[in-house]
Amino acid sequence: MSCGLGAVILVFMLVKYNVDVAGARENQSLELELTQLAAEEAALSRQVAAARADQSTVETDVRSASAQLAQIEIQLADKRRQSARQQKDLTALKKTIEKTEIAKTSDLVDDANAGEQDYVVGLKVEGDKIIVLLDSSASMTDEVLIDVIRRKNRPDQEKQAGPKWQRSKRIVQWVLARLPHDSLFQVIAYDEKARSLGASGWLKANNPQAQNGVRAALSGLVPSGATNLQAGLKAVTRAAPTNVYLVTDGLPTKGDSNFKSLNPFASCSSLRGASNTISGACRLKLFQHSVDKDGPTRDVPVNVILLPIEGDPQASSAYWSWTSATGGLLISPAASWP
User: Fold this and answer.
1) SS3 annotation, 107-155
2) What are phi and psi of 124, to 5 degrees?
3) Is the dihedral of CA 324, 226, 253, 313 positive or negative?
4) What does the alpha-carbon distance between residue 283 and residue 289 come to, in Å, rounded to a whole number?
5) Would the N or C end of the chain have less CB density within 10 A of its end CB?
6) Is residue 175 domain-shared with residue 64, that is, in the same domain?
């Protein structure tokens, strides 16, 4: 009996031991799993926090973008209103222009080649006593030197028919047609010498007979000889004008002074009668000397209409300096004008 009881006790003891060992192992397993779950929970919490932070940033960006979009829409609406107003103003302006009658300038003398479309921007004919100074030298017949040389030995009719000479006469007529009605005028032509065209002295711009006399003299003028700007300037200075309009194609080739006594011309043999040609440098010196010695005073505006000839590149700068110093204007118009 006692042996059986002892066996039972021993069995209970063994069972209890196995239960305790198994329970300890299970507890350890549960604690490990709990630790892992806690770590996962912490990681998930961090992910949730990060996601919430990202969501907050995205929401902030969305709000900012929405605000910018709203501002852009406001600006666009404002631009549309401005565009509509401008289009309305433009339409009204077009209608006004269409209804406005263009005022025609009343020219003193009818000229088929001097219509409104031929006015040059910036060149205004003005002054109380106006002189038109016309270069009538041989070079005024053509644009190209070889053509000028060929035409020199031809009859007067062919010299007068030269394209540049025909254009020069149209320019003079253009100026005459736009003289102020209450002004006085003279037209002086110069080659080797200077001469008045039409009646001598000051003529009334509003006198058609005076203008017709100048036109008749201009029609019979033959371009020939050298370019003596100094002779032309002497005639201008004697007349004491208030405004000068010069039509020419380049720098002078001849002068009136005793050049042998002037040091600046020591190297210019042509001006001392020792050569039949003249260099560009000598022509420039001659121009400067002519203007300084016999040109009108600086308070007389000089306007130059330059019809350039080849081989005279310094002409434009020289005439520009002169006209600028007097408050005048230099133009070299397109071949189609006037």
Assistant:
1) CCCCCCCCCHHHCCCCCCCCCCEEEEEEECCHHHHCCCHHHHHHHHCCC
2) -115, 130
3) positive
4) 10
5) N
6) no
Instruction: Give the whole-angstrom CA distance, residue 25 versus residue 14.
Output: 17
pLDDT by residue (tens digit) across 60-71?
Answer: 888 888 888 888
Q: What is the DSSP string of 253-296?
A: S--SS-GGG-GGGTT-GGGGTS-S---HHHHHHHHHHHHHHHSP
Secondary structure element (H or E) that encloses residue 302, with its range: strand 302-306
- Domain extent, residue 220, equals 116-331
Of 43, 71, 100, the residue that ends a domain is 100
Nearest to 181 by CA among 131, 126, 133, 116: 126
pTM above 0.85, yes or no: no
57-116 residue pLDDT tens:
888 888 888 888 888 989 989 889 988 988 888 888 888 887 776 555 555 555 554 444
| Bridge partners, residue 248, by sequence | 306
Phi/psi at 295 (5° precision): -75, 160
Q: Examine the fold and report which residue of 45, 73, 100 is the final residue of a domain before the chain moves on.
A: 100
